[in-house]
């Protein structure tokens, strides 16, 4: 198990150029107002706030050749890639504050580049209501936040798929998607063709979050770099209304806490995205405060300190 990184770097990316709705550009400040830096410091981390990246505004234009705002999305993702990569090179844990989920292309490309250089294995946990595996041929909207994982796997515009310096940046087998419950029909076929590992809400309903997470985290070793890309619409909108693309039937508060706690138990979280928080749809910053609460659990907060058994379960503490 790798030693925990004790210095976290906050990187704000205030843009919604890849999204279907405006407002995610306000996400970084909402997370700061909700006390993210103080919460992380309370978990024993040294926290450096690197401020916000700069990039073009949202032109709010229709898609061109199947992509909306491609030039702007590329600019923002280059900024994100360089900022995240610099923090990884400095042995810090970058925390990207989005912004819409197209920015995951830049952050995960940076993690992939870092892992290649350090001879480490990248595992990506994609916590989301959507697979984000569309292409311009499949997408009904052209919004690039719905194409992020496809771009990372080599299916997308050259400017985005080449960000990490290698195409594809990652193989589908590196990704575990959790909480999925909204997939376009053609996108669903493409997901199956590419063999993505998806623990959708039916799986979670039938088997439970614990079994889903044990599957998602299986196969990691001390050389694994774990990247968590947390789209806030992963959560059920009853508890997290502050997103632009709400989909009913997501994880409950306790299911989400268990997900985060089991990630924390690995001790291998090395980089993090917090995406798609949209204060324009929120109530009194409620969703931002919930996101901060869950991020605390990612860094070790739990309701009860308990021993962990050899295969990552909690049975020993429960007499199972």
UniProtKB/TrEMBL annotation:
<feature type="binding site">
    <location>
        <position position="130"/>
    </location>
    <ligand>
        <name>Mn(2+)</name>
    </ligand>
</feature>
<feature type="binding site">
    <location>
        <position position="132"/>
    </location>
    <ligand>
        <name>Mn(2+)</name>
    </ligand>
</feature>
<dbReference type="GO" id="GO:0005737">
    <property type="term" value="C:cytoplasm"/>
</dbReference>
<feature type="binding site">
    <location>
        <position position="128"/>
    </location>
    <ligand>
        <name>Mn(2+)</name>
    </ligand>
</feature>
<dbReference type="GO" id="GO:0000050">
    <property type="term" value="P:urea cycle"/>
</dbReference>
<feature type="binding site">
    <location>
        <position position="231"/>
    </location>
    <ligand>
        <name>Mn(2+)</name>
    </ligand>
</feature>
<keyword id="KW-0464">Manganese</keyword>
<feature type="binding site">
    <location>
        <position position="101"/>
    </location>
    <ligand>
        <name>Mn(2+)</name>
    </ligand>
</feature>
<dbReference type="InterPro" id="IPR020855">
    <property type="entry name" value="Ureohydrolase_Mn_BS"/>
</dbReference>
<dbReference type="InterPro" id="IPR023696">
    <property type="entry name" value="Ureohydrolase_dom_sf"/>
</dbReference>
<dbReference type="Pfam" id="PF00491">
    <property type="entry name" value="Arginase"/>
</dbReference>
<dbReference type="GO" id="GO:0004053">
    <property type="term" value="F:arginase activity"/>
</dbReference>
<dbReference type="InterPro" id="IPR014033">
    <property type="entry name" value="Arginase"/>
</dbReference>
<dbReference type="GO" id="GO:0006525">
    <property type="term" value="P:arginine metabolic process"/>
</dbReference>
<dbReference type="GO" id="GO:0030145">
    <property type="term" value="F:manganese ion binding"/>
</dbReference>
<feature type="binding site">
    <location>
        <position position="233"/>
    </location>
    <ligand>
        <name>Mn(2+)</name>
    </ligand>
</feature>
<keyword id="KW-0378">Hydrolase</keyword>
<dbReference type="InterPro" id="IPR006035">
    <property type="entry name" value="Ureohydrolase"/>
</dbReference>
<comment type="similarity">
    <text>Belongs to the arginase family.</text>
</comment>
<keyword id="KW-0056">Arginine metabolism</keyword>
<protein>
    <recommendedName>
        <fullName>Arginase</fullName>
        <ecNumber>3.5.3.1</ecNumber>
    </recommendedName>
</protein>
<keyword id="KW-0479">Metal-binding</keyword>
<comment type="pathway">
    <text>Nitrogen metabolism; urea cycle; L-ornithine and urea from L-arginine: step 1/1.</text>
</comment>
């Amino acid at each position: 198990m790798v030693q925990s990184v004790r210095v976290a770097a906050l990187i704000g990316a205030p843009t919604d150029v890849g999204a279907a709705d405006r407002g995610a550009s306000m996400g970084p400040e909402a997370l700061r107002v909700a006390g993210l830096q103080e919460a992380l410091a309370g978990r024993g981390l040294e926290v450096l706030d690197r401020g916000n990246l700069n990039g073009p505004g949202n032109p709010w234009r229709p898609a061109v050749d199947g992509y909306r705002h491609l030039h702007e999305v590329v600019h923002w993702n280059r900024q994100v890639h360089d900022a995240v990569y610099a923090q990884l090179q400095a042995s810090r844990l970058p925390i990207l504050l989005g912004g819409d989920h197209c920015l995951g292309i830049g952050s995960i490309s940076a993690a992939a580049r870092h892992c290649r250089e350090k001879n480490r294995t990248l595992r990506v946990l994609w916590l989301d209501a959507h697979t984000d595996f569309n292409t311009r041929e499949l997408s009904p909207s052209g919004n690039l936040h719905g194409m992020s994982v496809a771009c990372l796997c080599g299916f997308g515009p050259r400017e985005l798929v080449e960000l990490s310096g290698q195409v594809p940046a990652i193989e589908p087998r590196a990704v575990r998607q959790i909480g999925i419950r909204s997939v376009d029909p053609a996108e669903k076929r493409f997901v199956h063709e590419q063999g993505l590992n998806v623990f959708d809400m039916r799986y979670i309903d039938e088997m439970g979050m614990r079994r889903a997470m044990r599957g998602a985290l299986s196969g990691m070793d001390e050389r694994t770099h774990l990247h968590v890309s947390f789209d806030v619409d992963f959560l059920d909108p009853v508890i997290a209304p502050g997103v632009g693309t709400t989909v009913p039937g997501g994880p409950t508060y306790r299911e989400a806490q268990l997900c985060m706690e089991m990630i924390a138990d690995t001790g291998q979280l090395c980089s993090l995205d917090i995406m798609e928080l949209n204060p324009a749809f929120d109530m009194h910053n409620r969703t931002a405060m919930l996101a901060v609460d869950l991020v605390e659990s990612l860094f070790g907060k739990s309701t009860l300190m308990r021993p962990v058994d050899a295969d990552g379960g909690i049975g020993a503490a429960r007499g199972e």
